[in-house]
Specification:
- This protein has 392 residues and is α/β, with parallel strands linked by helices.
- It is built from 16 helices and 16 strands.
- It has two domains: 154 residues, NAD(P)-binding Rossmann-like Domain (Rossmann fold, 3-Layer(aba) Sandwich); 214 residues, Dihydrodipicolinate Reductase, domain 2 (2-Layer Sandwich), CATH 3.30.360.10.
- Bound molecules: nicotinamide-adenine-dinucleotide (NAD).
- The site of nicotinamide-adenine-dinucleotide (NAD) has 29 residues, from helix 1 and strand 2.
- The site of nicotinamide-adenine-dinucleotide has 29 residues, from helix 1 and strand 2.
Length: 392
């Protein structure tokens, strides 16, 4: 597709993920949201009409029901697919797989979400890890919220050659806010009995060669997930190096307990106060003052806003599949700018330069430059053994 053409995008499934993807597509100057498609006729899809998005019926038999309810349906999914270059499938788990033949038949590119299996597309996507692999492909799958967070955080460490083996414990939210009346959990926590939980193997479909095991469970809250990661390293990694590596990684931002951000609700309250749409936090929030390192391992605690974190990934996946931007870093930057994704939530009172200077203070200048070059050059790992300065 020509570089100056706007990509025509459809969103099928206008739920938690789909409505956010639609809004994010509408923000891009190289994309055009042609329409959204669903099967419901309640307040959720009515909002799409309020936003002025053309609405399509994903199932032929749902069209009259939707129309009867006053939804301005302009056609069926088949009609929509004829008008677009790419569809972002945001339907519930398993329905995406059923939809794939429709997309094949229509000859459109398609992006699926984390509820679908890796095998559906053969490419599981996290922009900062494998953007180039998705270039001009017909299908890709954006990995789930938890896997996206693991991939971003562990990418910072893996590309530096630091990971010997990673272990993570995931405390998942019970349900999404919009359906808390249906599936709420009260005064309990539910451990998953399968080890590893699926997020570890899923992360391996993106971060090749990663040694990881995850364990998971769910608790009675709906604001976000909470992860604890313990990473055995190939050499002693200093805390300052870890902070620097995370600072250099896109879509990972620090929060601090010392700044009142002491819990999941506090961080989401911050998103509200920052007037983010739907309180969305697209970044992985890593507790900077909970980071720890010893001679063998690194320890990280981070918050994953499940409703929001994968949205920028879908935007980058559109650019990659349609080949309108061949450079992953440029796509990430463009998406970040359009959506307001930041490295630093408090640029006025805690300027980025001071954070950088503070965390880089203990690093030798050469190492700082090397780390930043490592980020730009992306995949090549740094030395697996400590420099004399580091071991000193
Ligand atoms: N909710 C999360 O936290 C989250 C995070 C990351 C990834 N995901 C993944 O994103 C995908 C969508 O999840 P969600 O949470 O947005 O679900 P959701 O239930 O909030 O939304 C799904 C939407 O699809 C519609 N739908 C149902 N059947 C349809 C059909 N046949 N055709 C078209 N539309 C149909 C529903 O009416 C609903 O509006 C899943 O693969 C899920 O695993 C969800």
């Amino acid at each position: 597709m020509a570089r100056n053409q706007r990509v025509r995008v459809a969103v099928n499934g206008y739920g938690v993920i789909g409505k956010r993807v639609a809004d994010a597509v509408a923000l891009q100057d190289d994309m055009e949201l042609i329409g959204v498609s669903d099967v419901v006729f309640d307040y959720r899809i009515r909002v799409a009409a309020e936003r002025g998005y053309p609405i399509y019926a994903s199932a032929m038999e749902k069209r009259p029901v939707m129309e009867e309810a006053g939804i301005p349906v302009v056609g069926t999914l088949d009609d929509l697919l004829r008008k677009v270059d790419v569809v972002v499938d945001c339907t519930p788990k398993g329905i995406g797989a059923k939809n794939k033949p429709l997309y094949e038949q229509a000859g459109v590119k398609a992006i699926f979400q984390g509820g679908e299996k890796h095998e559906l597309t053969g490419l599981s996507f996290t922009a900062q890890v494998n953007y180039a692999d998705a270039l001009n492909r017909q299908f890709a799958r954006v990995v789930s919220c938890n896997t996206t967070a693991l991939c971003r955080v562990l990418n910072a460490l893996q590309k530096r050659g630091w990971i010997k083996r990673a272990r993570a414990v995931l405390l998942r939210r019970a349900t999404d806010p919009w359906e808390s009346h249906k599936n709420g959990m009260i005064n309990t926590a539910v451990p998953e009995t399968r080890v590893p939980s699926h997020q570890g193997p899923d992360a391996q479909t993106v971060l090749k060669g990663l040694d990881i095991t995850t364990m998971a469970g769910a608790g009675p809250y709906n604001l976000s997930h909470l992860h604890y990661a313990m990473i055995e390293t190939t050499r002693p990694v200093k805390l300052d190096e870890l902070r620097h590596a995370l600072w250099e990684e896109p879509r990972v931002a620090f929060v601090r307990w010392s700044n009142g951000l002491v819990a999941l609700n506090a961080v989401i309250e911050l998103m509200r106060d920052l007037r983010r749409p739907r309180n969305d936090m697209w970044e992985v929030a890593v507790w900077e003052d909970a980071l720890a390192a010893d001679e063998r391992e690194l320890y990280l605690t981070f918050q994953v806003h499940n409703e929001a974190i994968t949205i920028p990934e879908s935007i980058d996946a559109i650019r990659a599949l349609c080949g309108i931007e061949t450079d992953g870093a440029r796509s990430i930057e463009k998406t970040n700018r359009s959506m307001g994704i930041v490295k630093n939530f408090f640029p006025r009172t805690i300027p980025a330069e001071s954070v950088y200077a503070e965390m880089g203070r203990a690093l030798p200048i050469a190492e700082r430059e090397f780390l930043s070059e490592g980020f730009k050059g992306s995949e090549e790992p740094t030395r697996p053994v400590p420099t004399p300065a580091q071991s000193g």
